[in-house]
Task: inverse folding
């Protein structure tokens, strides 16, 4: 079997070939030999570049984003099918081919699957594609029948006319492809939706229950070899020497590849490669970075907190006057450490390098970035790079901006031209060479008057910038736009407010992480609002209400308060916490009811999470993201931390990097309440309000204000 | 400042590539003869030798459960289980959980409740749950909590619990 080559001729259609093989075959895990002869091909029977309709009625929707488990592979197809008015049972998804995307001037727009953008940033052009295709089908049918288009209607993939004639989409699709793509398109109102807003079975589920789902870790090519890598444990160091003779004669070992800061062993079996790597004598050139520790980083952050000339991210009114007039001043510091994504599938990429082209197989969160990284690394024309996408075994931001594993994989493959090699990181490498959610220290100071009214607020953040490593131009006047989220866009209407940002960078590699700054910043902000309410002797829910003007913030806050019955006292021994945060274009609030025993064991009885994400495409997936968000939030609150010692990560596996388990997981009550007037994200927003809601409930139950994560360090645990 | 770090002691492994001994594995009812080192973890014999890739590598130290298979009715973390110990044992992987890949009560419940997200841990989850139900057809919450030590980063635990209960009611 051959790869259907993605090097297309500009001829628009050749119906002998469909694009199903372009990526579909990879997902099925069929082993085949790449066709290196670059056969002429085309784009398939397209109705817009997003949609293909075959004579057998199959509607194929091309998906530019990556399925990470959030349901985007199904949800984006729903958006198309709704406007297309096809039969949902005939719809399937396939990945938009990355090479085609490059050849067609990035026609699939953003391939990035991060920032909870998969649906909200695609919905407009994806739905218009569905609507355009429907018009093209109607036009073709109207011509065939010689009737006006206005006399044709569509339903479930069938076009009917006023004379009672019918034709299916599959029967007219070839003719419809000849129609020009309409530009004047109107989209259905929410009230007209029949596929969007419902929860059809996700396409990717069955194969994830029987071992048939093929990930980048599983994909096989004939003769494929396996590589394991060891990177300099102290970031910034370089490879000094390796004694290859110690392992080169071991069974199965094919090659040792050395690079500036890593060494990899290639073998016929990954275990053999990894075992040999463990035996390989390696020495490194280590820099002064080895003197860095969690303690030294804490001191560095302290210099930011003490820096009176820190850049100002936002200023309203005059905090100086507010504090001078204050009857009471509340201040507190909140801190959190480095966090690793620890995707269940460690970083994995396969590559095949030849003189003609470079093929890369990856569960990337951005196919275009992977192609660009691969091309740049080996210095070949981007158009000769063929990235084949798989569903990722977890992403959480690790596989988007940083393509370190891609660069390594193509370098390794280049050392054996013509042989496919898969690089799979060991868990230890994955833990020690993450792109960590950065450390943070936040100092908050609030001014209250005699009646407990909130006069002023001063927030100074000291943390490590992610953007400086991936897009420095986004940093304006020293302020990181990502790390200041939640404070810079703080929705509370305190009239005197100042948010300062002190960037303090270290050699520890930072990266985007599911909800990123919307994990540590809400912890600090909503924890502190609770502290203010307490100092003002006011109810934390009502105190928030007093200073929130936006009705969407209020609506979700009211919803969780009502659901948890905030007005009534909880059952004896239980206490509650509440928080509200808008994030990634959506509005969320959480309310929690828990007890804490004398051994600091927390028993979470209820977690209620509300989200207004504007519009909901697949309600069950939204609930799934809320459930997963609760686990992500509780895991980071309780357990997770990468510590730094001697310039490197201390933690190396799930044995010391603890994450939440099933026994610790509470039931989740999700309130999905779309207002219908905007499009917000889903994958990350709920996390932001869950963390502080739990922390605030812990205070109510114990009187102990938790101001650092993970709280296992404070002696807390979840009752199991 | 520059210093150097040297890792690990050297010892010779891979002593068994002379072909003098074959490992016989009984996987999903089929016998396979393998010319591999006896200390090779079963996981890698399954994945890289037998090409049964449904069983996943994630931690390599029996800490996460993604590699769980059934051996003689027990849930075993195959990433630390040497093939020599698996010889002549009855091994079931996710590919052998049901004949058609969909009719095990757990598979049905998993689809009905749309349990998986990224799915990478789910083979191990299912195999662990299958052994649990074989040992305790109607497990208590406590039994589920104790048995299901598998790690899921997407956070499917809520539905895993529900699906196990649903399957136990059906079985």
Result:
């Amino acid at each position: 079997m051959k790869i259907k080559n993605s090097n297309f001729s500009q001829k628009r259609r050749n119906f002998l070939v469909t694009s199903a093989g372009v990526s579909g075959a990879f997902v099925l895990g069929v082993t085949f030999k790449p066709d290196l002869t670059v056969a002429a091909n085309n784009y398939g029977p397209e109705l817009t570049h997003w949609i293909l309709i075959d004579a057998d009625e199959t509607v194929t929707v091309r998906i530019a984003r990556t399925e990470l488990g959030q349901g985007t592979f199904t949800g984006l197809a729903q958006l198309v099918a709704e406007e297309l008015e096809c039969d949902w049972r005939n719809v399937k998804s396939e990945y938009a081919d990355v090479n085609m995307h490059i050849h067609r001037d990035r026609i699939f727009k953003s391939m990035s699957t991060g920032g909870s953008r998969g649906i909200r940033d695609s919905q407009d052009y994806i739905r218009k594609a569905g609507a355009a295709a429907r018009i093209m089908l109607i036009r073709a049918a109207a011509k065939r029948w010689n009737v006006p288009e206005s006399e044709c209607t569509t339903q479930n993939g069938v076009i009917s006319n006023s004379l009672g004639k019918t034709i299916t989409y599959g029967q007219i699709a070839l003719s419809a492809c000849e129609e020009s793509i309409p530009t004047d398109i109107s989209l259905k109102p929410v009230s007209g939706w029949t596929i969007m807003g419902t929860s059809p079975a996700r396409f990717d589920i069955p194969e994830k229950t029987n071992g048939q789902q093929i990930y980048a870790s599983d994909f096989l090519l004939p003769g494929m070899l396996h590589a394991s890598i060891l990177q300099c444990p102290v970031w910034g160091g370089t490879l000094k020497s390796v004694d290859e003779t110690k392992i080169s004669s071991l069974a199965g070992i094919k090659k040792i590849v050395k690079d500036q800061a890593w060494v990899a062993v290639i073998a016929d079996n990954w275990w053999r490669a990894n075992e040999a790597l463990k035996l390989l004598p390696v020495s490194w050139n280590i820099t002064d970075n080895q003197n860095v520790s969690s303690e030294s980083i804490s001191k560095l952050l302290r210099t930011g907190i003490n820096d009176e000339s820190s850049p100002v991210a936002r200023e309203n009114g005059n905090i100086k006057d507010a504090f001078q007039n204050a009857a009471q001043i509340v201040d507190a510091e909140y801190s959190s450490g480095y966090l690793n994504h620890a995707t269940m599938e460690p970083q994995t990429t396969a590559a095949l390098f030849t003189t003609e082209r470079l093929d890369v197989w990856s569960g990337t969160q951005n196919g275009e970035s992977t192609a660009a990284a691969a091309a740049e690394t080996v210095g070949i024309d981007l158009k000769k790079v063929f990235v084949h996408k798989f569903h990722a075994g977890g992403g959480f931001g690790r596989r988007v901006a940083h393509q370190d594993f891609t660069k390594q994989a193509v370098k390794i493959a280049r050392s054996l031209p013509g042989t496919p090699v898969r690089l799979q990181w060991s868990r230890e490498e994955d833990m020690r060479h993450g792109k960590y959610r950065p450390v943070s220290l936040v100092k908050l100071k609030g001014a209250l008057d005699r009646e407990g009214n909130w006069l002023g607020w001063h927030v100074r953040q000291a943390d490590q910038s992610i953007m400086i490593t991936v897009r420095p131009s986004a940093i304006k006047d020293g302020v990181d736009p990502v790390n200041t989220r939640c404070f810079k866009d703080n929705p509370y209407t305190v009239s005197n407010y100042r948010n300062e940002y002190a960037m303090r960078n270290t050699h520890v590699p930072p990266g985007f992480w599911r909800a990123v700054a919307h994990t540590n910043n809400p912890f600090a902000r909503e924890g502190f609002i609770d502290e203010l309410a307490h100092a003002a002797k006011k109810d934390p829910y009502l105190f928030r209400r007093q200073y929130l003007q936006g009705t969407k913030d209020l609506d979700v806050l009211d919803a969780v308060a009502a659901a948890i019955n905030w007005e009534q006292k909880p059952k004896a021994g239980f206490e509650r916490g509440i928080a509200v945060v808008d994030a990634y274009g959506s509005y969320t609030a959480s309310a929690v009811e828990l007890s804490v025993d004398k051994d600091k064991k927390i028993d979470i009885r209820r977690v209620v999470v509300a989200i207004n994400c504007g519009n909901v495409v697949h309600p069950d997936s939204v609930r799934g993201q809320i459930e997963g968000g609760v686990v992500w939030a509780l895991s980071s609150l309780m357990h997770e931390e990468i510590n730094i010692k001697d310039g490197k990560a201390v933690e190396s596996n799930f044995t010391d990097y603890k994450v939440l388990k099933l026994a610790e997981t509470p039931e989740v009550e999700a309130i999905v309440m779309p207002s219908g007037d905007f499009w917000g994200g889903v994958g990350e927003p709920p996390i932001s309000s869950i963390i502080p809601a739990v922390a605030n409930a812990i205070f109510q139950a114990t009187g102990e204000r938790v101001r650092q994560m993970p709280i296992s360090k404070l002696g807390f645990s979840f009752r199991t | 400042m520059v210093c150097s770090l040297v890792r690990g002691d050297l010892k010779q492994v891979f002593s068994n590539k002379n072909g003098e001994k074959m490992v016989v594995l009984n996987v999903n009812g089929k016998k396979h003869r393998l010319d591999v080192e006896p200390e090779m973890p079963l996981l890698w014999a399954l994945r890289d030798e037998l090409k049964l890739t449904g069983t996943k590598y994630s931690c390599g130290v029996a800490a996460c459960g993604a590699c769980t298979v059934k051996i003689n009715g027990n849930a075993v973390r195959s990433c630390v289980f040497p093939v020599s110990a698996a010889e002549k044992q009855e091994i079931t992987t996710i590919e052998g959980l049901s004949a058609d890949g969909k009719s095990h009560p757990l598979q049905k419940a998993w689809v009905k409740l749309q349990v998986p997200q990224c799915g990478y841990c789910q083979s191990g989850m299912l195999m662990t749950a299958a052994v649990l139900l074989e040992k305790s057809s109607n497990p208590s919450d406590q039994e589920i909590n104790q048995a299901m030590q598998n790690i899921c980063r997407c956070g499917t635990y809520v539905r895993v619990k529900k699906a196990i209960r649903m399957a136990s009611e059906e079985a």
